[in-house]
Amino acid sequence: AMVILTMLEFQNQLVEAAFRKELVYGEDRADRAAPAVVEDLFGAVRESYFRLFFNFMYFDVAKWSYLQFGVIVPYIVLTPCIAKGEITLGRMQRIVSAFSSVERSFQFLVRNWSTIVELISVYKRLVLFGSKIKEESSSSESEYISEMDSFGAAKSMS
Q: Is 107 exposed, middle or buried (0-12, 13-18, 19+ CB in 10 A)?
């Protein structure tokens, strides 16, 4: 689930960025942000959000089912003792309370999964952005070096 949600969140960020970028360019240049282009980009953003919400819906159903099931697990486990009358109400409440404390620790990831997915997708986007910057800087460095070499060769010829 994490891989799919992270990929969808990452894709959603890219589609949104392309849409915003076109709108910003359209403010300054008349040839950008044509209605057909903006409509296509907005359609892509809309489709991306529908896909993202649909997948998060399945995740949320699983998450809340897990959280609700966790509430009744101690009672299910204690059913034989309760049925035989071997446990008092106070002792049962202490066991349920201890189980709830342990369960809350395990639920940290489940409860914060959407934030974790969003942070992972932001990280992926920053890595992609950094690699683009490195590509640009290495190509501009090689152009600069070749210009300097040609300048040095031209200077030595004269």
A: middle
